[in-house]
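Record format v2
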Amino acid sequence: MNFEILMQVFQLDSIGLCIAGTILGIIFGAVPGLNATIGVSLLLPITFMLSPTAGLLMLGGIYMGGMYGGSITAVLINVPGAIEATCTAWEGYPMTLQGRSREALYYSIFASTFGGMVGILCLIFLTPPLAQVALKFGPPEMLIFALCGLAVVGVLASKNLWKSLFAMGLGLFLHTIGMDSMTTLYRFTFGIRSMASGLDIVAIVLGFFCFAEMFRNIGQKKAENFVYRDIFIKRSTVIIRMLKKWTVSVKASLIGLLIGILPGIGGGTAIFVAYGEAKRSSKNPELFGKGNVDGIIAAESANNAVVGGSLIPLLALGIPGSPTAAIIGAALTSHGLIIGPSLFLKSADVAYIFMYGMTFAVIGMMLVGTFGINLFPMILKINMFYLIPIVMVFALFGAYSINYNTFDVFVAVIVGAITILLVRFEIPLSPILIGFVLERLIEENFRRSLIIATAQKQNIIVYILTRPLSIILGIVLIVFIVYFFGKNKNEKKEIESN
Amino acid sequence: MKNRKVRKMWLLVIAAGLVISFAACTPGRTAERSASGSAAQLEYPVKNVTFIIPYSAGGTADTVGRLLAQHLSQILDINITCVNKAGASGEIGSLELINSRKDGSVIGTMNIPDFIISDIVNPQFEFDLEKDAEFIAAFNNTPFSYFAPAKGDLNTWDKFVAYAKAHPGEVTVGEGGIAHRILAAAVMDKFGIQFTTVNFAGASETVAALLGGHVSAASSGNQRLVEFTSGGCMPIIWEGKTKPEGFPDCALFSDYGMDASFLGVGNTVVAPKGVPENVITVLEAACAQIANSSDFGERMRNLGYDYTSLVGVKDIMETLRKQKATISAICEKYADRILSNG
């Protein structure tokens, strides 16, 4: 990198647009129903009018900010703006009820900054070798990796394993609805045209957390008895405590990075795996779900590390690591730049300015998050019966904005109503989400592996066992299953003995 | 006291719901109203036009669609809003497009050959090539070619054919959609060979699968050439009049007397059938201007597309009918191979 490029990084308009994008991203993340992907696709046309680097940095900022923004509403009102913030809600909201919202928000922004920085630094310094990792994962590896993600259900299920497994099955089933992309056949659509594109994860998350939470709030005394408390905590105290827990954030960032690099797996999987791993390695797993900061640190580090990770194969190979990265790739191509290795030869300045400039997105996010903490809790001072309609209106708009289709709005509302039943029967929601997010990976890669194995006249198990990476991942999977479900049993015994 | 508060809360919720449902219903109602008076001449162009793109934001179809919309809006001096209505390989957005207002205020883009294939293989896709849409212009005709690792055993087409003949079904070919499986069926038929197609979710994942060595070859659009070659792969058979840049020894489909251009991907400008004549005339004139501008063609070539342009409903319909006949014949003969992947 030469001096000229470095000077261009520090141009005011690029930095300004990057930070503006980050703030916009935080808003997109925080508003229920909107997320980074929607934000990036909405602002894509605007970037056509900007210079390539300025436009890219703005989109990158939205992506980065959007991954963090969801945690604000997740912590404060138990409504994760996007799937990437669901785990943060499980730990953050109980903290808010204890008056520790400030602490939760600090952990969330510092963890996001750490994860985001790890991702971007890897993007800057390790892009070529890490991009090769994306290529090493063929169908059998993706299959086993996705099964490892599914095994996380074991550690998240606490009370009744069977209910968790049922929920996981339900999640897997729900995702099979719609057109099967490999055969173009319609499954479980009952002749309803809109069902052909399947249920959207955004609609499901809105139903689970936004509508269900608001439906439950309606007419509840909880809303009236809730007294807002704000226990003060120093920034430095939080930073020191987080540094002491460095293993949690480092592990989660690496998980986020790897999942970001792999095409076809998004931030949703990253947070569940990171959260599950944090719970597994925790000395006090029983405190999870009651306001354990480890959960917040893990989830928030992971989702922001995904950003840098998903840009690595995009810039190096032209293969986007996530849907949001794909849209950023479109911004590059519409400026006439060809992504892939030739990008660094033909338009090195754009590539490098983008990579270095992304650090400003992380810094901007940190500043907004840290100093905004005095403002965010204002939302708690709003009376519940104003807050409910506001949140629901945003959620309805959010659901509509997925595909500009009212079908998604109905899905979100109906899922919200069903969720109340699920909660009543103590069926956990997280395994449903994990199943839903991983179904496509598991099914399609299983079928691909089977096709390839058959073509090579091998049994699928033999085929998997001839691939070294598959064997390593297979061992990880077995360890996960034994450990997770074993842990679950022990926990249950403890609960019973108590 | 508390009851009143609860009631107040419910009222607010219901009011909000009403506002939303009203907002959501409005376009539908206008559509009905204007459909009844569609035969009359309308003043066109109107100020605001919606441009439906039946694919998700960020894809190549979206990029080209937005560029088309941008050029149309400049030429006609109107506001064009692009709306992505993705889902089911473009089927959902396409159906919405052809069923929308017939006054020229809703137009859009549809990808050749996606809708032709959906029409043939999917009985639930209620689309009639003759009765449902006016194809005003078609841009690009980017066909598919086959790629394989440059240093592998299958790095020429002759080697590929010889190996596939000796080991029926053992060669795996990655592909990103049903159109590639139709080409595969045609290739197997022509060369009397058998190989196995492996479906991946889109072109990017197909490129990744071949670069990672998980499949023996890949079927992909010509515009992906650079991604393959920079990852150590090369084209082994190419659809086009000239050889791919930098590969003078690469075989062409035409060398073997085969024409694979019937699956070339094109981006159309479409209006629902029943729009008044003058709307078509205005749009045709604008599209002709796009076709004649060097800027648009240049940008398409930069994206790696084989740029062609065809303006005029009659000419396009003629080519589409031919394409449909060819694709239908292959689909009928090899339905099981094309539809039952795994």
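Confidence is low (pLDDT under 50) at residues 24-39 of chain B.
Chain B has two domains: 38-142+264-335, 144-262.
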